[in-house]
């Protein structure tokens, strides 16, 4: 029988620690539901003690997501573990993931603890977690820079205390593939209880070796890989889920292991995560980059046309990338639209479908051909919308190279109509100032980006903004064939989120 490697997704925990990312509970739940469709084995939903927002997101995911194991992270302290257990209570298959650093440098400077103290804390943490749940994962943080004797002792005691999974992290992305393989093999040989637990790895990409290190570990016999969609994570990120899975798939002849991932959901998952986090995917990114399946050079095109496998080692279909560019237009009816959505893998409840169809019709009026990419953009845009406390009813802007830009807006804020005007150094600046005044929200624009969803002059423009409100970052998106309108929508969307975070909505 072929060995199975489990995929532990940490997009919502380590991935959320990517600089500049801040997700609310609704956005996290949306990603978790997509991870369920992707069929990951474990979803690490968050770090419950970190904030109330993190706690409620883990709880919401534990309540609503079925299938994958739901894990919550906890340092090796009673407070952390109790909080994680509380958040995971509604889960069908809960796992507490507890960790403590084991390298000399971390123990000395961060923990200020001796080896024996670390060992004692680890054992106590595993036992406490075990009193709440059956499934307990233990990580020795910075394992790759730890003393091997101590590491063996630590994992051995953790398993004896009840750990069902032991995780070997290359926390700072320092190990090389051969070194990391040696470490895993040594632990496999020298921890007597190792066959009683699953063995996992968690690699960071500081030197670009996270995926290579993880795959080496697979060859050494580990049964779980921790990774994140689009390689998100602390600093340079984690091992990229899509790269690991497609390597195992494409080179099954070599790795000879099974996994449970539905690869046809990879593209959609990657896109959703990029949309929600606002972290764009580089075009030359392996597997999911825009160029991953594009053939530019004539000699390659010729080869691919003659026989796909000349230059294509995997097919775009295998990751769920729609290659058929079937277009819908303004004469397409509700049925055709619903069918297309289904083919693209979206199953929407009736009211959501109605809303999406309405937006599709609006778009089809402005744009001759509505492609799959447009439809995906519409559906994803609406999936993560919070109820709108701020609605821009209308705006006007005038600008020119010799005149100062002036803008006016009329905004509906929880039923109250407010009008304001402002000047600025350009149309967007003027509009954003007017909006801030109208909503009476003091925030700072920290990032603005615009891209077109498809090619063509009438393409949908997608604007993503990041605003800073009291030191917290909020992401806003706007989608329109008019880029000024998309810009206004994006800013209003971000400001709306700041209101929700302040208690005018639910938790953040
Ligand atoms: Zn990490």
**Rg of Cα set:** 25 Å
Total DSSP helices = 17
General form = globular
Going by helix content, strand content and strand pairing, the class is alpha/beta
| Helix percentage | 40-55%
Distance between the termini: 46 Å
Oligomer: single chain
- Report the mean per-residue pLDDT as an integer: 90
Report the strand count.
16
Largest sheet: 8 strands, parallel, barrel
Relative strand content? 15-25%
Residue stretches low in confidence (pLDDT < 50, at least 5 long) are 503-508
The largest beta-sheet arranges its strands as: 2-3-4-5-6-7-8-9
| Distinct bound molecules | zinc ion
Tell me what the structure shows.
It is a single chain. This protein has 508 residues and is α/β, with parallel strands linked by helices. Helices cover 41% and strands 21% of the residues. The chain has an eight-stranded parallel beta barrel, surrounded by eight helices. Helix 1 runs antiparallel to helix 11 (266-277) and helix 5 packs parallel to helix 6 (148-160). The chain is globular.
């Amino acid at each position: 029988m072929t060995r199975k490697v489990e995929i532990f997704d940490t997009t919502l925990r380590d991935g959320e620690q990517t600089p500049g990312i801040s997700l609310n509970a609704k956005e996290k739940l949306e990603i978790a539901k997509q991870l369920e469709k992707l069929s990951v084995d474990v979803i690490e939903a968050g770090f419950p003690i970190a904030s109330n927002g993190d706690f409620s997101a883990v709880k919401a995911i534990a309540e609503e997501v079925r299938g994958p194991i739901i894990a919550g992270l906890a340092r090796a302290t009673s407070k952390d573990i109790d909080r994680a257990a509380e958040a995971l209570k509604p889960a069908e298959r809960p796992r507490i993931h507890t960790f403590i650093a084991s390298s000399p440098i971390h123990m000395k400077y961060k923990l200020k603890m001796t080896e024996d103290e670390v060992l004692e804390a680890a054992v106590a943490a595993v036992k406490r977690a075990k009193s709440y749940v059956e499934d307990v994962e233990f990580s020795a943080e910075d394992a790759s820079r730890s003393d091997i004797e101590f590491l063996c002792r630590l994992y051995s005691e953790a398993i004896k205390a009840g750990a069902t999974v032991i995780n070997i992290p290359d926390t700072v992305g320092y190990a090389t593939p051969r070194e990391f393989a040696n470490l895993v093999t040594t632990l496999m040989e020298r921890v007597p209880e190792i066959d009683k637990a699953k063995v996992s790895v968690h690699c960071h990409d500081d030197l670009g070796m996270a995926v290579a290190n993880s795959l080496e570990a697979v060859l050494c016999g580990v049964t779980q890989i921790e990774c994140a969609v689009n390689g998100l994570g602390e600093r340079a990120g984690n091992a990229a889920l899509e790269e690991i899975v497609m390597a195992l798939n494409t080179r099954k002849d070599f790795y000879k292991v099974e996994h449970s991932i539905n690869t046809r959901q990879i593209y959609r998952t990657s896109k959703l995560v990029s949309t929600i986090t606002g972290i764009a995917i580089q075009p030359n990114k392996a597997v999911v980059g825009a160029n991953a399946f594009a053939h530019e050079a004539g000699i390659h095109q010729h080869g691919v046309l003659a026989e796909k496998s000349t230059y294509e080692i995997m097919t775009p279909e295998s990751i769920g990338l729609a290659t058929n560019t079937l277009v819908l237009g303004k004469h397409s009816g509700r049925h055709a639209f619903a069918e297309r959505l289904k083919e693209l893998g979206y199953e929407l409840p009736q009211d959501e479908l109605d809303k999406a169809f309405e937006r599709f019709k609006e778009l089809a009026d402005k744009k001759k051909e509505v492609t799959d990419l447009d439809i995906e953009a519409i559906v994803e845009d609406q999936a993560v919308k919070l109820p709108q406390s701020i609605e821009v009813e209308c705006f006007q802007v005038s600008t020119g190279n010799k005149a100062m830009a002036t803008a006016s807006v009329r905004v509906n804020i929880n039923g109250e109509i407010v009008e304001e005007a402002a000047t600025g150094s350009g149309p967007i600046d003027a509009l954003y100032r007017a909006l801030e005044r109208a909503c009476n929200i003091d925030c700072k624009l920290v990032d603005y980006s615009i891209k077109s969803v498809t090619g063509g002059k009438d393409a949908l423009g997608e604007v993503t903004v990041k605003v800073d409100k009291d030191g917290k970052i909020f992401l806003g998106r706007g989608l329109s064939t008019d880029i000024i309108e998309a810009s206004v929508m994006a800013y209003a969307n971000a400001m709306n989120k700041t209101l929700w975070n302040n208690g005018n909505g639910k938790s953040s």
